[in-house]
Design brief:
Elements: H1 2-15, E1 52-58, H2 66-81, E2 85-91, H3 94-107, E3 112-116, H4 119-128, E4 153-154, E5 157-158, E6 161-162, E7 164-173, H5 174-180, H6 188-200, E8 204-207, H7 214-228, H8 232-241, H9 247-261, H10 274-282, E9 286-292, H11 306-309, E10 312-315, E11 329-330, E12 332-334, E13 336-340, H12 347-357, H13 363-369, E14 374-375, H14 389-399, E15 403-404, H15 415-429, H16 435-444
Parallel strand pairs: 1-2, 1-3, 8-9, 11-15
Antiparallel strand pairs: 3-13, 4-5, 6-13, 7-9, 7-10, 7-12, 7-14
Length: about 450
């Protein structure tokens, strides 16, 4: 237990580096937001006996497992403690969520919404003035990891709270590996060779959600870190200048193309979605699954067969021969979170619910106890010794990390850049567009 406690304390220090992101420059934001009246002191909360309905718009449609379960637990607890409050939830998967979020931004937001503290999403949202300002001092005792709030600020004001500290990795079925004598690859070249061996054995090597685009873009980020040793020194000027033709970017893209060409992913990966890819892995048809730490709850998911869930393990992107990145340089960043609508008719109660949600013994504690990734708040005190091996693996990844990628490349530019790169990366990976065309097109999207 002592070793675990030390490990977690080191983890907290490491996660503080995640704010580096892709080098978003302060002082260059445009637009003005005038929601100062929405801070806690100035909010008028309706009388306790008045019936209130809070509408929550969430990107977590599975309410029985993972983060959706944790979110629902807190909602149910809040309603139990506040009998006059009804919380209505609308939950969509991420891509459908983001599409409808844009419609809500134009026509009126629900009271509490899921958001992402990354430039591609939050910059335009803050410029539009649809989120309520929060009183940062309210969260002095909420144990947020140093730097984790930065992506949710504009002009020094806070407009949202982070939920996750995310790490990208290859999940794999330990039993399948052991039964076949397969080893966790130490280099990218070994990963591709392993993929060919697995395919020859009649299995899918890596289940990939290529239909959504963003997992491929994170894979590109992961590879860039291994090629160059850091991401921001390449991505930040590339976005600013609209020029992605550097040698490092070209080599990284070629490595991604090589993976797809070698058959590392399932047939039709570029049109198959998150659920399809995950099912391939959890049904035992794929030996590996490339996804983030938010899926560590697979190890506790009763809908997955016991033999599979008990054997889910993970490894981070292996090193690239000749690259500057170390095995302990990992793709990690602060992920999604929540905010309150600036124009909510029950804004005071909505902020009260948000603050309840983020009390250290709620979202962070319940998430850890249910094996749901890692929080943007210090979870040290919740170590119990009952963690799954998968949880402890991800903790070790962060504890031992020598550097982190920060915000994935697809979220480092304007929203049009995100749209273009997530579309173009499918085309370059499947060979319908050349590497040079891909790099040119994503550069043009920044101009």
């Amino acid at each position: 237990m002592k070793k675990k406690l030390i490990a977690m304390l080191m983890l907290v220090v490491m996660i503080g580096a995640l704010l580096a992101g892709c080098g978003k420059e302060k002082g260059k934001e445009t637009g003005s937001v005038s929601q100062g009246e929405s801070t806690k002191k100035e909010e008028k909360t309706p009388p306790k006996d008045e019936n209130i309905t809070i509408k929550v718009f969430s990107n977590l449609p599975d309410r029985k497992n993972g983060q959706g379960l944790v979110e629902q637990m807190i909602i149910d607890e809040y309603m139990e403690l506040n009998k006059n409050v009804t919380i209505e939830v609308e939950a969509l998967d991420e891509e459908a969520y983001k599409t409808k979020f844009k419609a809500y931004a134009m026509n009126g937001m629900p009271d509490v919404v899921s958001i992402w503290g990354q430039p591609s999403f939050i910059d335009e949202v803050l410029d539009a003035g649809v989120l309520a300002e929060l009183n940062e001092t309210d969260y002095n005792d909420y144990k947020f990891i140093s730097g984790s709030l930065e992506g949710f600020k504009k002009d020094g004001k806070l407009y949202g709270l982070p939920r996750n500290s995310d790490v990208m990795a290859f999940y794999y079925n330990q039993k399948i590996f052991e039964d076949n004598g397969w080893k966790v690859p130490a280099t990218y070249e070994e990963l591709l060779l392993l993929g060919k061996t697995i395919k020859e054995a009649g299995m899918v090597p890596v289940a990939m959600d290529g239909g959504d685009g963003w997992p491929l873009a994170i894979l590109l980020t992961d590879l860039l870190l291994k090629v160059n040793g850091d991401c921001s020194s390449i991505v930040t000027p590339a976005v600013a200048q609209g020029n992605f033709t550097s040698g490092e970017m070209k080599k990284t893209t070629e490595l991604l193309v090589e993976a797809a060409k070698s058959g590392l992913f399932q047939t039709g990966y570029d049109s198959q979605d998150y659920g399809t890819a995950m099912n391939l892995f959890t049904n035992g048809q794929a030996a590996m699954f490339y996804m983030g730490s938010w899926e560590t709850s697979m190890a506790r998911n009763q809908d997955i067969s016991e033999e599979i869930r008990n054997n889910i393990r993970a490894f981070t992107m292996p090193v690239v021969e000749g690259g500057k990145g170390k095995a302990t340089d990992i793709a990690a960043w602060n992920g999604g979170g929540y905010a309150v609508s600036a124009h909510s008719e029950v804004k005071g109660e909505a902020i009260k619910f948000l603050n309840f949600m983020y009390q250290p013994d709620k979202l962070s504690k319940y998430g850890w106890e249910n094996g749901v990734g890692m929080s943007a708040q210090d979870q040290t005190e919740f170590l119990s010794g009952n963690e799954t091996e998968l949880q402890m693996q991800f903790m070790e990844f962060l504890k031992n990390a020598t550097s982190v990628s920060g915000t994935p490349i697809n979220d480092c530019g304007p929203s049009i850049f995100k749209t273009v790169i997530e579309s173009e990366i499918q085309s370059v990976s499947n060979g319908t567009k050349s590497v040079d065309e891909f790099l040119t097109n994503i550069g043009l999207a920044c101009k």
